[in-house]
User: Fold this.
Amino acid sequence: MQFPTSLSSFLVFSAYVFLLSSLAVGSVQVVQTITVDKSGNGNFTTIQNAINSVPHGNSQWIKIAVNKGVYIEQVTIQKEKQFIWLEGEDSSSTVVQWNAHAEPPVAETATAAFIVSADNFIARQITFQNSYDYRSKQAIAVAAVVQGDKCSFYNCKFLGYQDTLCDFQGRHFFSQCWIEGGVDFIFGKAASVYEGCTLNSILIDEGPSWFTAHAKVNVSAPGGFVFKNCNLTGSGNMYLGRAWNRYSTVLFYKSFMSGLVVPLGWDSWQHDVSHITYAETNCIGPGSNTSQRVPWEKHLSGQGWDAFVGPEFNDQDGWIEQHAP
Assistant:
């Protein structure tokens, strides 16, 4: 590239470079950084107070940098507080933790350590944990609820036992995340892609139990869980998924399945199987043997798979790359 030799040319050149940087794919333009530190060496000592400082109707990216520590608080991002980027020092040392559990008719979301209802949200290098002692009595204990649109999580951990991650609604992207539980530990009706994630079962008995419970309610509703290049590990005997609603949609693509996956693979939960979309392709590992799978598992064509692993599934407007931190 040739550099300008005059002031006017330099100003034009600078504006051009600024425009390119602003439009750069995968480059989030942060206008403000807020620091959270438990010891007081930041702008706030709690994550919730930092979030509360973001104005309603915010339209520019604000980064909340969370220094290491275990933050025992129930964190909520209201729908009016868009464009928040929440980042910890690393997922092992930066933890949002809450201890709560519920039994019906109490809403499971009320137990969550973290709830995001806003669109346009990023989390990176942070753990969301419900620390309820599930060994004393099994109960619903949610670590995180995601119910905004265009929410992405990078190198995060979600720790719980029953109903760990409520992937409730909206378009979501999870990259290199660790999701741990024992019963329905990814559930909801969202349209989400999980790429390079680990689903780790800590089932305390032989089971069987379920990795996922997807709840798509009708054929025209957007929704589905798509797992790409993921790892299924841990203890017990696990179904890949159970149909929480009659149009439940879950797919595994090029993933590793350890021997804990039961041979049948899927559980209809007494729904009409003709409406359920459960499929897997190009998976490896002892649990990937499909010779004894349920006869109603879908066998998609190449074009059928493209509809789920391509951008048309939940990235039609390219938001995933635009939101990459």
Q: What stands out?
A: The longest strand covers residues 30-36. The two ends are 27 Å apart (CA to CA).
